Amino acid sequence: MITIKELGFSYHESKEHVLKNITMTLEEGRIYGLLGENGVGKTTLLTLICGLKKPKEGSISIDGNDPYMRKPSLLSEIYYLSDEVAAANMKATDYAATYGKFWDNFDMGRFLEIMEVFETEADKKMNRMSAGQLKKTHIAFALACGTKYLLMDEPTNGLDIPSKAQFRKAVMKYTREDATIVISTHQVRDLENIIDPIIILDRQDVLLNASIEDICSRLYFDYSNEMHPEALYCEMIPGGSIQVLINTTGEDSKINIEALFNTVHRHKELIKATF
Fold first, then answer.
1. Mean pLDDT lowest for which of 21-25, 81-85, 174-178, 224-228?
2. Which of 30-39, 88-97, 186-195, 255-264 has the lowest mean pLDDT?
3. What distance in Å separates the CA atoms of residue 156 and residue 135, rounded to the nearest whole number?
4. How far apart are CA 244 and CA 47, in angstroms?
5. Is the pLDDT assigned to residue 15 strictly greater than 80?
6. What is the average per-residue pLDDT within 115-141?
7. Residue 260: is it exposed, middle or buried by C-beta count within 10 angstroms (0-12/13-18/19+)?
8. In terms of pLDDT, which residue wins out, 38 or 75?
9. Which candidate, 115, 68, 104, 255, places its Cα nearest to that of 176?
10. Which of 114, 124, 150, 198 fits a disulfide with 140 by CB distance 3.0 to 4.6 angstroms?
11. Are 188 and 257 within 8 A, CB to CB?
């Protein structure tokens, strides 16, 4: 379990906080979608969780350990996949064999299997791969490490539509049942079917951290042509509209994450009070 309490961070001597008063708990066996406007600190939060940066305020605990202390037994259970990936001057298989030894559960057979799923040549030099092939190679390596904690920053950036589908299937198939996975993204439609719970981050607060079941029990997503003056958010879509309302009837509905995101940002205090 990851426990974050009153976390604050700023770069160097800057008085402006990138993150402030961030408190949340991330449970095992979940795939969290980390959403937020550009610049709110999603990437910074991921690097703090994996111990690459030290909090200026508050604390982060992973199974009772401070990740910044870089305890080897904990580091072997964490993998952070950056949005920017390196094009190493070696074959993907050599890269995996060289760096996989730092993670106790790394499985070369699993790496090769995922590379095959991604239709990417494992014996090809990484600096000769296309941007999409390189990204898929690093995703395959991340999944092959078999870590309990997997943090991924914009993993679908640079992937074409078939590759995004491959990514979703791979995440569902090749991650541990007890894993805590956090995926930062602004391309919510790419991950709409696999992320649950959903975190919506603001600089000074966590606006939302809730399961889809909980969200749909408190908010209603209406796709009809009937206009509701009490709607918190309304957007025209082909064939009608999507409206978000407070769920007063207990009726179930299908979530629209983009509409949810816009609703939360328009009604920050109301949403916090609702959840």
1. 224-228
2. 186-195
3. 8
4. 33
5. no
6. 96
7. buried
8. 75
9. 104
10. 114
11. yes
Per-domain residue ranges of the chain: 2-209, 211-274
pLDDT of 10 above 90: no
pTM, entire model: 0.92
Rounded (10°) angle between helices 161-174 and 108-117? 150
Please report the DSSP string for 42-95 in residue order.
HHHHHHHHTTSS--SEEEEEETTB-GGG--HHHHTTEEEE-SS----SSBHHHH
- What is the model's pLDDT at position 144? 98
Thinking of the domain 2-209, which architecture would CATH place it in? 3-Layer(aba) Sandwich (3.40)
Residue found under tokens 């407070």: 246
What confidence score (pLDDT) does residue 258 get? 92
Which residue do the tokens 């991924």 mark? 152
Beta-bridged to residue 208, according to DSSP, are: 200
Torsion of CA 109, 174, 75, 87, to 10 degrees: 70
Residue 14 pLDDT more than 70?
no
- DSSP three-state, residue 5: strand
Dist. CA 238–CA 135, nearest whole Å: 33
Work out the widest C-alpha separation in the chain, in whole angstroms: 60
Q: What is the distance between the alpha carbons of residues 199 and 78, in angstroms, rounded to a whole number? A: 20
- Identify the CA nearest to 182 among candidates 61, 11, 1, 16: 1
DSSP-based three-state secondary structure for 203: coil
DSSP string, 114-145: HHHHTT--TTSBGGGS-HHHHHHHHHHHHHHT
* Helix (H), strand (E) at residue 263: helix 257-266
Is 266:243 a contact under the CB 8 Å cutoff? no
